[in-house]
Amino acid sequence: MKRVAVVGAGLSGLSAALHLTGAGHRVAVLERDSVPGGRSGVLEREGFRFDTGPVVFTMLDLLEEAFAAVGRTTSDYVTMKLLDPAYHTFFADGSSLLVRPGHELMREEIAAQCGPEDAEAFDRFVAWLKRLNDVELPHFIDANFSSPLSLLRSPRAALELVRLGAFGRLGAAVERRFDDERLHRVFSFQAMYAGLAPAQALALYAVITYMDSVKGVWFPEDGMHAVPRAMARAATDAGAEVRYGATVERVLRGADGAVTGVRLTDGEVVPADAVVVTADLPVAYERLLPDLRAPRVARKGRYSPSAVVWHLGVRGELPPHLGHHNIHFGRAWDEAFNDLLKRGVPMADPSRFVAVPTVTAPDAAPPGHHTLYVLEPVPNLQVGRIDWAVEGPKMRGRMLAFLQEAGYPTEIVTEELVTPADWAAQGMAAGTPFALAHTFPQTGPFRPRNVDRRAPGLVFAGSGTTPGVGIPMVLISGKLAAQRVEEL
Q1: What is the β-pairing status of strands 241-244 and 26-31?
Q2: Are residues 269 and 262 in contact, defined by beta-carbon separation less than 8 angstroms?
Q3: Which residues are 353's β-sheet partners?
Q4: Which of 220, 319, 375, 378 would bridge with 353, disulfide CB 3.0–4.6 Å?
Q5: What is the pLDDT of residues 161-209, one digit of tens each?
Q6: CATH dotted code for 3-44+56-79+222-301+437-487
Q7: What whole-number distance in Å separates Cα of residue 136 and Cα of residue 422?
Q8: Which residues contact 405 (CB under 8 A, 6 or more apart)?
């Protein structure tokens, strides 16, 4: 049995805690805030409850796996609802499509809206996505890598990815399968989760499309923050200690470089045989490990685009054509990504995402009101040179005009605008909540590893390390971190 300190009670830290506790280790989770969640936070104001982090939950089986580590199930702690439709999507020509969960329901929608040829193409597309997922997940996502040579341990899987065209471009892989241009966007926008334009992303990232548009999108009955709360309760019930208001100041190491524990800002020392750190890697090294230089990819790597997120509590009813998750695609596509990724300016013709959680969780707002979560991708602080104190209010005005035109209620009761400057102040490198982009040199064994050999016993988890960004990936990262501790 090892004593393990987990720094941060976000999804990756709680996943690690559940897997470690289930394996019989003595775990202390140290969280600086007064509640669990980390980036999956919550804001309560004037009777409204806002989820401040990710709002799209996919791959429920990975959450089930974390609970199963301590002999529990997700339903013991939180009720998850499959959203149908997963998304309402809207296009500049005035048309719309529903993204429905599962193969058959989505096939019906495509047949009705796009025609029989694209419906048949969807059958072949799903078969391709499933094969990609079945090869990638066990061999290249849910796996620890010690070096790029680790790729050679699964040569057949690597050859199968080549055969499947996984190293081509995602945008092209989707475009050649479907005639309807709307489907090109519906099945490739997920590349943004990996921090890339669809035209640049490798086709292997179609696995995100599989997780999102085939396996389905879920929502907790009490809002997204119910998930980390549930995980924290399960960890505590299984014997882990979860401490709030416990800010870690430094990871402590002995003369041989091995970790010995952590020191809190109040001077308390928490001894540990292993320490799992979930902060963004550059920030983790700068603040918790100042005597160690961060890996080059963490210091010099390419970061994902950021986002402006506008939380609104509004009075009024939602029109019937809008749903829980709504994507409004702009007319421009490649040009918009050039604005975002190359020119470092706000998109001239933006696509926007709007979540209305009160469609599924009406108690998140007073009667007759809704909560809105409006997200527009913007350049990160590494690419853009934008004064967000000036640009933020301008973008708010543009977002408000968009919401009014799209039919959302806009009688604002309370609001909170979050810009890249705010993400940076929260400790997110390059002012983005989406960490390092998933370019090929920053993927799999080339991504910053979750161990640092200079500090035995130090393990990382979270979106900045293996396997990457998104709820499924950070849940896996916690599991992989637990495996690293087991190997010590």
Answers
A1: parallel
A2: yes
A3: 327, 375
A4: 375
A5: 999 999 999 999 999 999 999 999 999 998 887 888 898 899 989 999 9
A6: 3.50.50.60
A7: 35
A8: none
Long-range contacts made by residues 384-388, C-beta under 8 angstroms, separation at least 24? 384/344, 384/345, 384/420, 385/344, 386/344, 386/345, 386/346, 386/420, 388/419, 388/420, 388/421, 388/422
Q: What is the mean pLDDT of residues 274-296?
A: 94
Rounded to an integer, the average pLDDT of 422-448 is 90
| Residue in the structure block whose two tokens are 């292997």 | 204
* Contact between 25 and 3 (Cβ < 8 Å): yes
221, 31 in Cβ contact below 8 A? Answer: no
Helix axes 103-113, 116-136, angle to 10 degrees: 150
Q: Are 365 and 414 in contact (CB under 8 A)?
A: no
How is 117-145 classified by DSSP, letter by letter? HHHHHHHHHHHHHHHHHHHHIIIIISS--
DSSP of 351-405: -EEEE-GGGT-GGGS-TTEEEEEEEEEE--TTT----HHHHHHHHHHHHHHHHHH
Q: Can you spell out the DSSP letters for 188-215? A: TGGGGGGTS-TTTSBGGGHHHHIIIIIS
In this structure, which amino acid lies at residue 200? Q
**The model's pTM:** 0.95
Helix, strand, coil share (%) of the chain residues, nearest 5: 40, 20, 40
The Cα 62–Cα 64 span in angstroms is 5
